[in-house]
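WARN no homologs supplied; continuing
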Amino acid sequence: MQGSTLSPSALRELKSYYRALGDVNRLRIVQILVTEGEQPVSLLARRLRISQPLMSWHLHRLRRAGIVRTERSGREVRCSFDRERFADLNARGFRMLMNPTEAHP
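OK structure emitted
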């Protein structure tokens, strides 16, 4: 990304990131993973009092944005917060919004 504009792929990536954080349930999922660490999907669904299919939909959005990782262990799927990816996307979004005319890495 150079100059005053972001590449189309970088814009799509940031759009996905911000859209993923634009839902109360997804923010709650991220908050739990940040403060308590890795969690089973089934436990997250129970804690947020949402159905398993709806939880899967929210996790899909968070995974696609690069905020959450999932790992299957037998029948259980566990989720974790991707701190490095989150920090990178957050920093890029901040730079884009605060310094629109500066070069972006």
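The longest strand covers residues 68-73.
OK
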